[in-house]
Specification:
Chain A: Belongs to the ABC transporter superfamily. Ycf16 family. The complex is a heterodimer of chains A (275) and B (439). Chain A is an alpha/beta fold and 275 residues long. Helix content of chain A is 38%, strand content 26%. The longest helix of chain A has 16 residues, at 184-199.
Chain lengths: 275, 439
């Protein structure tokens, strides 16, 4: 059976203000989905809610992994169940070396029942794997000794997120603007890497990928099976790769005109935000 | 040895007289003790109108609740020594309730003229050698009631003396234990003659982690020119212990002191840590690692005193605070007029693990020379929800994430501590204490 991440009628609020207003989205392993939409439409919120961010309140709807509702699970459980997000602005953890951080993380995700204090992946095996992945991503080995995201440039953070995805081998990955802040060559490398990693995940099955982006370059090597457009906290239209190209080239005027109710909601949400 | 007859509660004249009668010490030392005892009786208790004590309330502390040398039955087992695990030592000493239990020194060190172990015994055998150092009184008995008391009654004390040019690679370890309700009046005296090098690991612990008691101690480190000392002092008393300490290091020309303080235990600690750079090109690095929980209160007054030109001092104190605990750090860099080309730094970082914890961080500079570089900094932060979430999305449990963030916070100071067993012991002890952050 193909594994599935299914979001049904998802309503989400922050401090009582609605941000998602009934999102429906089904991702099967092996599929690539692009999620586009203007700033403030709720794309990053959707990613954070799928990961279990405690600041967002699910007011209605479900998030199901293979038929099981995971909307009450904490982020740890979701990560260990194989869901991953590459963050737009990952947090720095000063004093903790990238390699140590990832050795713990990798052990936890590959051995979901692990309790704190139990054995980690053997150092030798971990080092070998980490070095291989870093070579694929053309990262300097020095990187492993730096503190997690501490003083990283925008590009370094994004590559570090991709490295983590490569090591954790998730079933489902959300990439939140992994292309922003990267130059053309870096986006190309990122795009190739994601495609490569997507084919290599655990159990031989490919990843299910949700790419949140404003551009279409990341999609060069990761042709989306579906492109979704989000506006005013809803997915209003779904198409193929041609929709991504259209939105990148022409913007969202046609979308706003076609979905006036969502366009009004976008306005309201922007005003609430401004207050 | 102190007879069990000395069981009177409190620090009375009878207790002091009986103490002296039992000691059989050289007259010059007895004279010092008598003078300090008189000072102890003259001085009043510090109060909160005094700048140094205004953040540290000791109204619940009463001398007469404690019985020094009370002959409390020795527990069959001492608490584990954290710093000595897996370390090949040059010597070790153990004391309990201000009484020396055992002292060992390697044959090699003994042959080279190194003295290590009980100062109480060694001062009787080597009085002429030690007298000038003891009479320097680096810790001034007149400073306050606690310094006077220690000068009068110190016992179960440690000595490390390393003669000129002798370099000891292996560390010495001294362990000071206190039984529940006990009293420790310990003193540590380290003397490194010219060009000598040594490492001394000292730790203090109660026989029960929740024990009460009282420690009133002193530390004197004397580094003559070109000497190098790595000194570690881990305070791990039970959670009911009152800890009062005066600590002083004198660093001579071209000498180097690395002084690391770890503070985990006690109910209330009031510590004066003073480093004086007394000869040109002297260097001192001071590292502090504090982890507090419950209602602990740790107060550190640090003093970096530059008396000579071309000296460097660098202080880094880091504390993580859990529950309703509180830390106070008051740091002073004092640069005398003669101390041109001083390079001095002090920094204090605090990580709050609960909203009820509080850290006061008060740096200070007093500079009389005109060609110096003196800087200070302090930060206070909380474990961030976004950091926790980020780590959790990588499969960390919340608890594991908090522990990781706390260990990362201390990494900068651990990077400076060049003794692996010390880094490991502190890291593990802190890891065990971190529970969770409170909302």
């Amino acid at each position: 059976m193909t594994e599935t991440l299914k979001i049904t009628n998802l309503h989400v609020a922050v401090e009582g203000k609605p941000i998602l207003r009934g999102v429906n989205l089904t991702i099967n392993r092996g599929e690539t989905h692009a999620l586009m939409g203007p700033n403030g439409s709720g794309k990053s919120t959707l990613g954070n809610v799928i990961m279990g961010h405690p600041n967002y309140e699910v007011t209605d709807g479900t998030i199901e992994l293979n038929g099981e509702d995971i909307s009450e699970w904490d982020a740890t459980e979701r990560a260990r169940a194989g869901i991953f997000m590459a963050f737009q602005r990952p947090m720095a953890i000063p004093g903790v070396k990238m390699a140590d951080f990832l050795r713990h993380a990798t052990t936890n995700v590959r051995n979901p029942a692990r309790k704190e204090g139990e054995e980690l992946i053997p150092m030798r095996q971990f080092r070998k794997e980490l070095t291989e992945k870093m070579e694929q991503l053309r990262m300097d080995t020095e990187f492993a000794r730096r503190y997690v995201n501490d003083g990283f440039s925008g590009g370094e953070m994004k590559r570090a997120e991709i490295l983590q995805m490569a090591m954790l081998r998730p079933k489902f990955a959300i990439l939140d603007e992994t292309d922003s802040g990267l130059d053309v060559d870096a986006v190309k490398l990122a795009s190739q890497s994601i495609a490569q990693i997507g084919k290599e995940t655990a159990g031989g099955d490919q990843m299910g990928i949700l790419i949140i982006t404003h551009h279409d370059k990341l999609l060069d090597q990761n042709t989306p099976d579906f492109t979704h457009v989000m506006l005013g906290g809803k997915i209003v239209e779904t198409g193929g790769v041609e929709l991504a190209h259209e939105l990148y080239t022409d913007g969202y005027d046609r979308i706003r005109a076609s979905y006036p109710e969502a366009a009004v909601a976008e306005q309201v949400m922007a005003e609430v935000e401004a207050v | 040895m102190i007879a069990t007859a000395l069981s009177t509660t409190g620090f009375s004249q009878e207790v002091f007289d009986a103490f002296l009668a039992e000691r059989d010490e050289p007259g010059w030392l007895t004279d010092r003790r008598v003078a300090a005892w008189s000072q102890f009786n003259k001085l009043g208790m510090p109060n909160n109108r005094d700048e140094e004590w205004m953040r540290t309330d000791i109204r619940l502390f009463h001398f007469d609740r404690f019985a020094p040398f009370a002959g409390i039955e020795a527990p069959s087992e001492l608490p584990p020594a954290l710093l000595a695990t897996g370390v090949d030592l040059a010597g070790r000493s153990v004391s309990l309730d201000s009484r020396s239990l055992s002292n060992e020194i390697s044959d090699e060190c003994a042959k080279q003229g190194v003295l290590f172990g009980s100062l109480d015994s060694l001062v009787k055998e080597h009085g002429n050698l030690l007298r000038p150092y003891i009479e320097r009184q680096l810790v001034d008995p007149n400073q306050d009631k606690f310094s006077a008391l220690n000068a009068a009654l110190w016992s179960g004390a440690n000595l490390l003396f390393v003669p000129k040019g002798v370099k000891v690679a292996r560390p010495f370890h001294s362990f000071t234990a206190m039984s529940a309700g006990g009293v420790d009046l310990g003193k540590t005296l380290v003397i490194l003659e010219q060009g000598a090098e040594a490492t001394l690991l000292t730790e203090t612990a109660s026989t029960d982690p929740e024990a009460g008691g009282m420690h009133c101690g002193s530390i004197e480190l004397i580094l003559e020119k070109e000497a190098r000392l790595r000194y570690v002092n881990l305070q791990n008393w039970g959670s009911g212990v009152w800890h009062f300490a005066h600590q002083m290091g004198h660093v001579g020309a071209n000498a180097g002191l690395q002084w690391t303080i770890g503070a985990l235990g006690s109910r209330l600690a009031k510590v004066n840590q003073h480093v004086a750079l007394t000869g040109p090109d002297a260097e001192a690095q001071v590292n502090g690692v504090m982890f507090t929980h419950g209602k602990q209160h740790l107060c550190y007054n640090t003093h970096q005193h530059h008396k000579a030109p071309f000296c460097r001092s660098d202080l880094l104190y880091k504390s993580a605070l859990q529950d309703k605990s509180r830390t106070v750090w008051r740091g002073m860099i004092k640069v005398d007029e003669a101390a041109q080309r001083t390079d001095a730094y002090q920094r204090n970082d605090n990580l709050m693990l609960s909203t009820a914890a509080r850290a006061d961080s008060i740096p200070g500079l007093e500079i009389e020379a005109d060609d110096v570089r003196c800087t200070h900094g302090s930060t206070s932060g909380r474990v961030d929800d976004h950091q926790l979430f980020y780590a959790m999305t990588r499969g960390y449990t919340r608890q594991e994430a908090v522990r990781m963030i706390v260990s990362g916070f201390f990494q900068q100071v651990f990077d400076r501590i060049t003794i692996e067993s010390v880094r490991d012991a502190l890291g593990e002890a802190i890891g065990r204490r971190v529970r969770d952050i409170e909302e």
